[in-house]
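HOLO CASE FILE
Compound: pyridoxal-5'-phosphate
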Amino acid sequence: MNKNMIYRCLPDGKSLLEDPLLCPVVEKYGRESVKEVIHLELDKLRSQIKSLPEEEEFLFCRDELIRTVTETAEKRNSPRMKMVINGTGTILHTNLGRAPIGEKYLTNAAKAVTHYSNLEFDLETGKRGERYSHFEELLCRITGAEAAMAVNNNASAVLLILSALAKGGEVLVSRGELVEIGGKFRVPDVMEQSGAILREVGTTNKTHPEDYERALGENTKAIMKVHTSNYRILGFTCSVEVEELAPMASKRGIPLIEDLGSGAFIDFSRYGLTKEPLVQEAIKKGADIVCFSGDKLFGGPQAGILLGKKEYITKIKAHPLTRALRIDKFTAAVMEQVLLEYLNEDTAIQNIPVLHMITAPKEEIKSRADKLIMLLKQKNFPAKFQITESYAQFGGGSLPLEQIPSYAVTIRCGNIPPSLLGKRLRSLPVPVIPRITEDRILLDMRTVWEDQTELIVSELEAGHVFE
Ligand SMILES: *Cc1c(COP(=O)(O)O)cnc(C)c1O
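Model generated. Tokens follow.
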């Protein structure tokens, strides 16, 4: 067939748009939107025809085109951001949204967000209130701080603190703490943005109190400690603790700032893991301002939580950047919900997803792996499934060396290479993100939830993953 004749077989856009088969699609997504998709698909067909070798047959099928238009229209009108199943064993996986938020907190917060709320309204006086007021007292009660607030994330918290308290002056930081956290958060760069001048003290592996003493001068506006979240210097090391720095700072009337990074409220050594620096301890030891992420070990919404001495927090609240970095009502509402949970550690570790994944006993993970294996074996998939011991990680730059004992389900399938299998899992309606090694893929069951095991199996079946 001659190419011009093939082109002529194609329907025109208008007739397609009027096709009764596309009627429901037009009704659902709107005329303009479907028209655009039709033109897009017709263009695709035309370029397919164009690249066809001369005299090649081309069978046009109207029903197939209509099916493609329907699918594309549906895809274009569906949200792209969606739930995934995390089989990587990395609990705070930054690429997978870091801390999942307990559904209960969102449900409880929904009313305040979907209606008008007292976000910045004092119900007692009828006057303007503060958006932090709802959770400030809770934060203070839990940590012993005098005052608290929150901004967009911890990087902005650091920027704000330094801008408000140290602009134009020097800030002392140990050379062992000039870290890059990932995602381009580098302590020296943030410092520069804030207008504060970095004064490095000590060496990479060792910093002594005298190093700080010597560097303190007329123009010193603050001393800052940064938790080296994502790496450890081991061996011949020495750093100066908050207890030693606090009197040095207060003697000169300057703030001691501590960027805790993750900032845990719960001592994980009670659960057989390494203890992360606790927020309440940093305050107790004399840090004047402490900041940490809301969506790392705290297990809440993305935020940078700042707390400490009232004098400093008041100054920070009044800084113009505060307005630019402020949290929204979703965050404020969810933050309060999560903090209420922290009033009781036992329920907190059960209900806050991040804490539950971290502290769940190994046996619980094992029984989840057993359940998944049992469900998989019932289906007679042409694949091999096994349980193996594995290690889960904190991730998100927390406790880099900590390995949390876990169990994984390994999957091997004849001649489907692991990378292809991984790709298929990622393209399921609820994508499953596995850990991929050279000869198999693994689903670490510490980050796969109990109610996801059945979903995984039904998806594997419906998606013909092993065929
Ligand atoms: C993670 C981290 C940050 C950045 O926090 P975000 O909430 O991701 O902005 C800053 N400082 C330290 C020490 C961190 O660990």
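CASE NOTES: The longest helix spans residues 31-50. The chain has 20 helices and 18 strands.
CLOSED: yes
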